[in-house]
Design a protein that fits this description.
The protein is α/β, with parallel strands linked by helices. It has one domain: Maf protein (Alpha-Beta Complex), CATH 3.90.950.10. Strands 1, 2, 3, 4, 5, 6 and 7 form a 7-stranded mixed sheet that branches. Its EC number is 3.6.1.9.
Length: 188
Amino acid sequence: MALILASASPRRVELLARLGVVPDAVDPAEVDESWAAGELPGPHAARLAALKAATVASRHPDAIVLAADTVVAVGRRVLPKAETEAEARSCLALLSGRRHHIFTGVTVVASGLGRHRLSESIVTFKRFEAAEIEAYIATGEWRGKAGGYAIQGRAEAFVRALSGSWSGIVGLPLFETRALLRSAGLDV
């Protein structure tokens, strides 16, 4: 059975390769990522992963479809995927010296059956000096990243503590993903 990755993220393709898995196709789901009233960050990530997988599975009914969604939160406050320097600067200022949660929902749909997992990780950053934030902004690594940083890049040097899944923080928790793919019949 073909494996379809319902994501345009090159990081997710790279992470799948660590499992020895190469998707047969990449077909990003274009879905409404709006928040439901009162929705918490973890359930939001799980719901979006399920919605993305179902959307792409409707286009590829005979394939195994893998989808994920990642959310960065400080308490109940969800940080955006930074698109501007100002957004990235604001995210980093908020994260400075604080711990935050990263939720990544993963869904695999095969033969019409959806299987779901949610990964939660906690990261604590050092307190940033203004010059460190500006130097990081200059790298451009933050662009399009939830919370305004990429842990797989230079931001990893700011991590004082990490609990959970490093790959989940990057965008695809490999432990959970492997279990879901195996349950769908892939030899991973």
